[in-house]
Specification:
Helix content: 55-70%
Radius of gyration: 21 Å
CATH superfamily of one domain: Tetratricopeptide repeat domain
Largest sheet: none
Distance between the termini: 15 Å
Shape: elongated
Number of strands: 0
CATH architecture of one domain: Alpha Horseshoe
Structural class: mainly alpha
Oligomer: single chain
CATH topology of one domain: Serine Threonine Protein Phosphatase 5, Tetratricopeptide repeat
Strand content: under 5%
Order of helices and strands: HHHHHHHHHHHH
CATH class of one domain: Mainly Alpha
Number of helices: 12
Length: about 250
């Protein structure tokens, strides 16, 4: 069962190519320097449009042109790294994310993106280090959920629960927090709370096979065999692959 770091329980991965205002311009820029930065920003904007349209090769060329015009353009490095990552060129992606972080260590989105590459590579401790930075920078619901997902994998379930709770305080509509917290509570054998969390998630996402599958195990541990069977059968109707999985604590 593949898992998306930014949306646990869903397949695939996601990268943030933008989200910050480019810091390309400075009060010291003038003459040819400003001209180069304007060219860089033009390529960057064009690359973002192509990236969002799914034209990755063209976006890659635009972001590369932006970086050639301004080698300190951290947002363009982050964006190009996102394209490299989606094209499966992870070493090149990590190189760009490293440079973006070097240039903007206190504001960059590249921590999240580098963590996603580490996550795909199953280098979870490195992913956690980057997500600690991500939380420190953004302190929003999605940042806490990204970290909670990795904390669960590292069996740091109490810490994952705390992050999910913070995520819901920041973003009450962030339903995915109930799923991630439910996973942690199942691992800690907090079955009543697990069922409550997973029920909240199912209410928001009624076609989530994973949520029914997890809740079926919580019901089974609680010896509610009828509810466990009902959830289990519903989960495998939604996703037959789940029939081959066992609970992993």
């Amino acid at each position: 069962m593949s898992t998306n770091l930014f949306n646990p329980g869903q397949s695939g991965v996601s990268f943030y190519a933008s989200g910050q205002l480019p810091k390309t311009f400075s009060s010291q820029s003038d003459g040819s320097g400003l001209s180069q930065k304007l060219v860089a920003l033009e390529y960057y904007d064009k690359g973002l449009k192509r990236y969002q349209a799914g034209h990755l090769e063209h976006a890659l060329a635009d972001f590369t042109a932006a970086i050639r015009s301004d080698s300190n353009f951290a947002e363009a490095l982050n964006a190009r790294g996102s394209v490299f990552a989606e094209l499966g060129q992870e070493n090149l992606a990590l190189k760009d994310f490293d440079e973006a972080i070097r240039l903007q260590p206190k504001t960059t989105l590249a921590y999240s993106n580098r963590a996603t590459v580490f996550y795909k590579q199953k280098r979870f401790k490195l992913a956690l280090q980057d997500l600690n930075h991500d939380v420190a920078i953004f302190r929003n619901g999605p940042a806490y959920i990204r970290r909670a997902t990795v904390l669960n994998i590292l069996k740091m379930h109490k810490e994952a629960i705390a992050d999910c709770t913070r995520a819901l305080e920041k973003s009450p509509d962030l339903a995915i927090a109930f799923l991630v917290r439910g996973q942690a509570r199942l691992a800690l054998q907090q079955f009543e709370q697990c069922i409550s969390d997973l029920s909240c998630y199912i209410k928001a996402e009624p076609t989530s096979a994973v949520a029914y599958w997890l809740r079926s195990h919580a019901y089974a541990f609680r010896r509610d065999e009828q509810s466990a069977r009902t959830d289990y059968l519903h989960s495998i109707r939604l996703d037959p692959f789940l029939a081959s999985l066992a609970v992993r604590n």
